[in-house]
């Protein structure tokens, strides 16, 4: 099963805004992706399930998808997103 | 340490003209509870305009921007129910859980809140109960009663 392990780069962790961007990106992928943090696994396109992971800054998470066309591309795209500090990309003044 | 959710910050019969009005009411409830400076209300509106805090199932969890964290005195929640519903970018919101959190508190608070909302039974009672004290019990994180 294709997997990517990535460290949460966003300063404040995978919470509201970074979590929203991540979930939107996950929903736009061609294949379902799961995200695992510790003992918990969540569908990557569910905001509540992703928030429930409680993945803070520096937490290591694993993304996984079933084998198939598009799986690697989806995991690469989502892993790259988590490796960015999404909080730093807030519009000025927000 | 003050309670995370004060009894005075629970309103089961709120009404709001629109999303911003609902967010503002949540912010004022947190300010009234002594959890944040008045400026936190604007930080919550900024957050909402940047990215919606709608999480599905008629629930939104308004909270401030990163910059707004400095205006928070202590971690706190508020619960406002809108029986008439509030239009939230095309979704209908009937329950708002407003959040004020300092430092890293928000990741833990959001995680605990999300786990509660993912439990269909608890989420339904949160939406339907007529008892404000039950709302407080429902939002108490698992195990907190045993924590010293």
Automatic annotation (TrEMBL), chain A:
GO biological process terms on file: phosphoenolpyruvate-dependent sugar phosphotransferase system
Q: Name one GO cellular component term.
A: cytoplasm
Entry keyword annotation includes Cytoplasm: yes
**Keyword line:** Cytoplasm, Phosphotransferase system
Asked if Ubl conjugation is a keyword of the record, the answer is no
Q: Where is the HPr domain?
A: 1-89
Quote the SUPFAM superfamilies the UniProt record gives: HPr-like
Q: Where in the cell is it found?
A: Cytoplasm
Task: Tell me one Pfam family matched here.
Answer: PTS-HPr
Residue ranges of coiled coil: none
Tree of life domain: Bacteria
Matching InterPro entries: HPr, HPr-like, HPr-like_sf, PTS_HPr_His_P_site
Enumerate the PANTHER family for this protein.
PHOSPHOCARRIER PROTEIN HPR, PHOSPHOCARRIER PROTEIN NPR
Q: What does this protein do?
A: General (non sugar-specific) component of the phosphoenolpyruvate-dependent sugar phosphotransferase system (sugar PTS). This major carbohydrate active-transport system catalyzes the phosphorylation of incoming sugar substrates concomitantly with their translocation across the cell membrane. The phosphoryl group from phosphoenolpyruvate (PEP) is transferred to the phosphoryl carrier protein HPr by enzyme I. Phospho-HPr then transfers it to the PTS EIIA domain.
What is the name of this protein? Phosphocarrier protein HPr
User: Which organism was this protein described from?
Assistant: Actinomadura physcomitrii
TrEMBL record, chain B:
Quote any Pfam family the record assigns: PTS_EIIA_2
Q: Does the keyword Phosphoprotein apply?
A: yes
* Gene Ontology MF annotations: kinase activity; protein-phosphocysteine-sugar phosphotransferase activity
CDD domains linked: PTS_IIA_fru
A single cellular component GO annotation: plasma membrane
Q: Which Gene3D superfamilies match?
A: Mannitol-specific EII, Chain A
Oxidoreductase: present as a keyword of the record? no
Q: Which residues form the PTS EIIA type-2 domain?
A: 3-142
Q: What is the designated name of this protein?
A: Mannitol-specific phosphotransferase enzyme IIA component
Q: Which organism is it from?
A: Actinomadura physcomitrii
One of its GO biological process terms is: phosphoenolpyruvate-dependent sugar phosphotransferase system
Q: What's the stated role of this polypeptide?
A: The phosphoenolpyruvate-dependent sugar phosphotransferase system (sugar PTS), a major carbohydrate active transport system, catalyzes the phosphorylation of incoming sugar substrates concomitantly with their translocation across the cell membrane. The enzyme II CmtAB PTS system is involved in D-mannitol transport.
């Amino acid at each position: 099963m294709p997997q990517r392990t990535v460290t949460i780069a966003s300063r404040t962790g995978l919470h509201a805004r970074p979590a929203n961007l991540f979930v939107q990106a996950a929903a736009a992928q061609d294949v379902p992706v799961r995200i695992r943090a510790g003992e918990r696994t969540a569908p990557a396109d569910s905001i509540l399930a992703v928030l429930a992971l409680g993945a803070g800054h520096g937490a290591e998470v694993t993304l996984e998808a079933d084998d198939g066309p598009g799986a690697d591309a989806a995991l690469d795209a989502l892993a790259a997103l988590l490796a960015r500090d999404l909080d730093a990309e807030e519009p000025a003044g927000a | 340490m003050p309670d995370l959710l004060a009894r005075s910050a629970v309103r089961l019969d709120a009404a709001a003209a629109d999303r911003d009005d609902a967010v503002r009411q949540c912010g004022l409830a947190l300010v009234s509870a002594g959890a944040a400076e008045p400026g936190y209300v604007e930080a919550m509106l900024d957050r909402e305009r940047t990215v919606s805090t709608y999480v599905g199932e008629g629930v939104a969890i308004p909270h401030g921007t990163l910059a707004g964290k400095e205006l928070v005195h202590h971690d706190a929640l508020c619960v406002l129910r809108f029986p008439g519903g509030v239009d939230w970018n095309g979704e209908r919101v009937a329950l708002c859980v407003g959040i004020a959190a300092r430092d890293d508190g928000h990741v833990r608070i959001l995680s605990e809140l999300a786990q509660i909302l993912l439990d269909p039974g608890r989420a339904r009672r949160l939406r339907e109960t007529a008892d404000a004290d039950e709302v407080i019990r429902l939002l108490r994180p698992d195990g907190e009663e045993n924590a010293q």
